[in-house]
Amino acid sequence: MSDDRGAGASGVILSFILGALSGAALAVLFAPRSGEETRELLEEKLKQSAERGRRLRDRATEKGREVLEDASGYLDKQRETLEKRRDRLAAAVEAGRQAYREEKEKI
């Protein structure tokens, strides 16, 4: 049994390239607009795409800021909770030490 995987992949790539070239040639031959009209249309579409990209970028930036603010608030809340627990634990340890000292003095 021979290994023809490499030949199959190159055949697919060659077919894709030939299809793209023939499609481009047919598009030029049968284009309903003149070259100038096509360039103007492409320029307009490019401007629209650039504007859409800017809007998406601005929206993503704003969403990122909101997420950052939410995360900062969450971290501050967790930090406060942790400090309260640490203070309660320190108070409990000190109360335990004090009770130990008092019991030791009774003996």
Structure write-up:
It is elongated, with a radius of gyration of 36 Å. The N and C termini lie far apart (93 Å). It has two domains: 30 residues; 76 residues. It has 107 residues and is mostly helical. It has two helices and no strands.
Structural descriptors:
107 residues, 91% helix, 0% strand, elongated
What's this model, at a glance?
The protein is mainly alpha-helical. It folds into two domains: 1-30; 31-106. It contains two helices and no strands.
Number of strands: 0
Q: Sketch the topology as an H/E string, one letter per element.
A: HH
Percent of residues in beta strands:
under 5%
Summed over residues and divided by their number, the pLDDT gives a mean of 85
Please compute the radius of gyration using only Cα atoms: 36 Å
Derived from helix and strand composition plus strand pairing, the structural class reads mainly alpha
Distance between the termini: 93 Å
Integer tally of domains: 2
Task: Indicate the percent of residues in helices.
Answer: over 70%
- Count of DSSP-assigned helices: 2
What best-fitting shape do the alpha-carbon axes yield? elongated
| Major sheet summary line | none
Task: List the topology elements.
Blueprint: H1 5-29, H2 35-106
